[in-house]
Design brief:
The complex is a heterodimer of chains A (477) and B (169).
Chain A (H helix, E strand, L loop, with lengths): L34 H8 L4 H8 L3 H8 L1 H13 L15 E5 H4 L3 H7 L5 E5 L5 H9 L6 E6 L2 H4 L12 E10 L10 E10 L9 H9 L5 E7 L20 E7 L5 H8 L7 E5 L4 H4 L9 E5 L15 E5 L14 E4 L7 H4 L6 E5 L13 E5 L18 E5 L6 H8 L6 E5 L2 E2 L1 H9 L6 E5 L2 E2 L11 E5 L2 E2 L1
Parallel strand pairs in A: 1-2, 2-3, 3-4, 4-5, 5-6, 6-7, 7-8, 8-9, 9-10, 10-11, 11-12, 12-13, 13-14, 14-15, 15-17, 16-18, 17-19, 18-20
Helix pairs in contact in A: 2-3, 13-14
Chain B lengths: L9 E5 L5 E5 H4 L3 H10 L10 E2 L5 H14 L7 H6 L7 H6 L4 H14 L2 H15 L4 H8 L7 H9 L8
Helix pairs in contact in B: 3-6, 6-7
Classes of the chains: A alpha/beta (477), B mainly alpha (169).
């Protein structure tokens, strides 16, 4: 179960272990052809052949599969007024980001490549539902659809006349907009469904959303956002019994939890639920989940008030953002904790007696002494660490640093600490000459070093057999 | 029209390495790039015009290009727009035979056809490479074009998984 919320937390580990592998220089004459001409060649290929050539080497993979390259090419075509169904051949592009108002210009392209598209991210504002439906019909293999359409203009459109899309399954379906616009998706199924209701939608009628949920059989993850108490979502018994078993449930700006029918709705997932995320000021709703045997991960956002009848002993993994209440008493058994914002009193964290894995962003860790923590991950850009770095009371075995601007303190940390680190992971940081030197000098203290998406000041770096080094996507400044 | 003037006057072009080639106006006009140049000086000036320098085409490649344009000088040439609409895959047997050359020559021909703006020749030569790629495995393509395999197995796996890693939640 991933417990990461923001994109920089997404943990795509390549652990390539290319220990001493030098960068391969491609010298074959075909690489002397400029991208424009390579595009011309690839244009003739069917999708199977273009996938074959994309697998031969990194450059061709980028040319064939990278969305920015697609957009770059598209721009050229737009500038030269040549946009049409000829420009892309049958090359396989799987991901499209597009603005709804421009979508109509892409029609010819979608006719050509629609079958290849698996991910569509669409800002549907300014777009008519019938146009959207046509576009979706051109993309029968779509697995991820993210759609935002809360434009008032669209609301006035007579959507009643448009028939729903034929049956479809989306792995991830994200919708923010009005109930009325949702009508075209009534026959669709989803595994992950994120629904953010349009706050301007005053019709207080969520019939289409209800109908959709009632039909779901494969749904595993549900996000509900922007439902006021007045919304009709749980005002009747429609959703008291459903056919799906949720593993993940998330509420954002959700006031309907007080309704008795909502409680009956969540009771459907008593056995299946493992992850709960709440963006609420009030914690009372947590009480309703106390008897859920498999719920281990709880994520709390903007909770200002936390007064529970008894500790939440079942929670093992806690994620918090903007929660300013004592936590240790309420969650005594957590072993892993993620703090997504600045926490004024890091000392609170000390009180977790079983905490082993701590992930923090933007926290003042000067006073942080938690002997139980074995894994520590820093994330985020405004990480504060005043000098001198006091980490002496800790026994960290795995240290992960990601997207942190200021890592000067790491020099001192590496020099001072005497126990061996099982893992040092640097992602998306700038490694200056001094830090490179420090790492080199202290390499006997590091069992495994992972460097990913980093900028290096000095090209020559320890690429030696005496350290287990994973190097990926680095660039030299 | 001046009676003494041949209907298809001689034109000279010079390759990047300094070799001069003689061909005819009709042939050389298949090149959009040269056509634009000539239109600017006006056709009357063609006879007095000196040799046209082609800085981006070497003599070996230019020789091949001239062979092709002379063969096709009387054929109506499709524009690049028409080529893009082309769906039929019919290739003139002469062209098929003409394109039997080693890959290095073919790359140079593509670059030259692009620079000289000869849409039909560019189409033929890029298509030729595409045909070589078609229905081959990545490994076969690598040995054909001498491409170094710069992937690690883990990276391949990661690329394949790329579209699925956001599945959770």
């Amino acid at each position: 179960m991933s417990t990461f919320k923001s994109s920089w937390f997404k943990d795509f580990k390549f652990t390539t272990n290319e220990q001493t592998q030098p960068k391969i220089e491609q010298t074959a004459p075909i690489f002397s052809l400029p991208n424009e001409l390579l595009f011309d060649i690839f244009d003739y290929l069917d999708s199977k052949s273009s996938q074959s050539i994309s697998k031969t080497c990194k450059r061709f993979n980028t040319l064939i599969n990278d969305t920015p390259k697609l957009l770059e090419r598209l721009k050229v075509q737009l500038n030269s007024n040549k946009i049409g169904n000829d420009w892309i051949g049958s090359r396989k592009y799987s991901t499209i980001y597009i603005d709804g108002s421009a979508a109509i210009f892409f029609f010819d392209i979608f006719i050509e490549i629609g079958e290849n598209i698996s991910h569509l991210y669409l800002n549907g504002n300014g777009m008519e539902m019938k146009v959207l439906k046509k576009i979706l019909l051109l993309m029968p293999n779509l697995t991820v659809l993210s759609l935002g359409c809360d434009d008032e203009e669209v609301i006035s459109e007579p959507v009643d006349l448009i028939e729903p899309l034929p049956e479809r399954f989306f792995r991830i379906f994200e919708f923010s907009g009005t109930n009325q616009n949702f009508k075209i998706f009534l026959n669709c199924q989803a595994k992950v469904f994120k629904l953010t209701r349009d706050y301007k939608d005053k019709t207080v009628n969520d019939e289409n959303f209800k109908k959709f949920l009632k039909k779901q059989t494969k749904l595993e993850s549900l996000l509900l956002g922007n439902f006021e108490k007045e919304s009709s979502m749980f005002s009747d018994r429609t959703l008291n019994e459903v056919q799906f078993k949720l593993k993940t449930l998330r509420f954002y700006q959700f006031e309907a939890y007080e309704l008795p029918n909502f409680k009956l709705f969540i009771d459907n997932f008593k056995e299946s639920l493992t992850y709960l995320e709440l963006d609420l000021t009030d914690c009372t709703v947590l009480e309703d989940f106390r008897e859920f045997p498999n719920l281990k991960t709880v994520s709390l956002i903007k909770m200002f008030y936390l007064e529970l009848e008894a500790p939440m002993n079942f929670v093992e993994d806690l994620i918090i953002e903007n929660v300013k209440v004592p936590l240790a008493e309420s969650f005594p058994n957590i072993t892993r904790m993620t703090i997504l914002d600045y926490l004024k009193k890091p000392s609170q964290v000390k009180n977790f007696k079983k905490l082993e894995f701590l992930e923090i962003s933007s926290i003042d860790v000067a006073e942080l002494k938690i002997p139980t923590v074995k894994k520590l991950r820093f994330c985020g850009t405004s990480f504060l660490c005043p000098h001198p770095f006091k980490f002496d009371g800790n026994q960290i075995k795995e240290l992960m640093i990601e997207e942190v601007e200021e890592i000067e303190w790491l020099n001192e940390y590496l020099e001072r600490q005497d126990t061996k680190l099982k893992l040092l992971e640097l992602k998306g940081v700038f490694i200056n000459a001094k830090l490179q030197k420090t790492i080199e000098q202290n390499k006997q203290k590091i069992e495994q070093l992972v460097i990913m998406r980093c900028d290096l000041e000095v090209e020559k770096f320890i690429v030696r057999k005496d350290i287990n080094l994973t190097f990926y996507e680095i660039s030299i400044q | 029209m001046d009676i003494d003037r041949p209907s298809d006057p001689q034109v000279s072009v010079v390759s990047s390495d300094g070799t001069m080639f003689h061909t005819t106006l009709k042939s050389i006009l298949l090149s959009g790039t040269i056509k634009d140049m000539i239109e600017h000086i006006g056709e009357g000036g063609v006879e007095n015009m000196g040799a046209i320098p082609l800085q981006n085409v070497d003599s070996k490649t230019l020789e091949i290009v001239i062979k092709w344009i002379e063969h096709h000088k009387d054929n109506i040439q499709p524009t690049s727009e028409e080529i893009k609409d082309k769906t039929a895959d019919f290739i003139d047997p002469w062209d098929e035979n003409f394109l039997e050359m080693d890959l290095d020559k073919l790359y140079n021909l593509i670059t030259a056809a692009n620079y000289l703006n000869i849409p039909q020749l560019l189409w033929l030569s890029t298509r030729k490479i595409a045909m070589l790629i078609k229905n081959r495995t990545p490994q076969e393509i690598r040995s054909l074009f001498n491409i170094e395999d710069d992937w690690t197995p883990q990276e391949i796996e990661a690329v394949q998984k790329e579209n699925q890693w956001c599945e959770e939640k």
